[in-house]
């Protein structure tokens, strides 16, 4: 009976060592990164769409400077889409000329519409 236990223990140890030797690391899957131009385009289109969503009438679109200008009621709206040094895109909303609460309301609606269009 002791020989059987020695043989069984030996087989168990050998099997455990074999199983460990068969492990392979999972392969990594790389996700293609979008170019800075593609990311700028997405942000630009989302900003334009957000302006439309909240009723801003765009009067000027200056893509090279990343500036959209428009109006909603008595409020003047400026939207900037700027590429940062670290290759991120910064979008800003400035609303002036209307009442304080109106401007804040327009800015809030623009921000929410932009975030929604960006899928956030």
Tally the helices: what do you get? Answer: 3
Mean pLDDT: 87
Quaternary organization: single chain
Sheet/helix structural class: alpha+beta
What is the CATH superfamily classification of the domain at 36-117?
Kinase associated domain 1, KA1
Radius of gyration: 29 Å
**How much helical structure, as a percent, in the residues?**
40-55%
The succession of helices and strands, N to C, reads: HHEEEEH
List the main descriptive attributes of the protein structure presented here:
alpha+beta; elongated; TATA-Binding Protein; four-stranded antiparallel β-sheet; 120 residues; 24% strand
Question: What is the compact description of this entry?
Answer:
The protein is α+β, with helices and mostly antiparallel strands and 120 residues long. The chain contains 3 helices and 4 strands, in the order ααββββα. The longest helix has 20 residues, at 2-21.
Describe the 3D structure:
- By secondary structure, the protein is α+β, with helices and mostly antiparallel strands.
- It has a domain of about 80 residues: Kinase associated domain 1, KA1 (TATA-Binding Protein).
- The chain is about 45% helix and about 25% strand.
- The chain is built from 3 helices and 4 strands, in the order H-H-E-E-E-E-H.
- A hairpin with a 2-residue loop joins strand 2 and strand 3.
- The model has no long low-confidence stretch (mean pLDDT about 85).
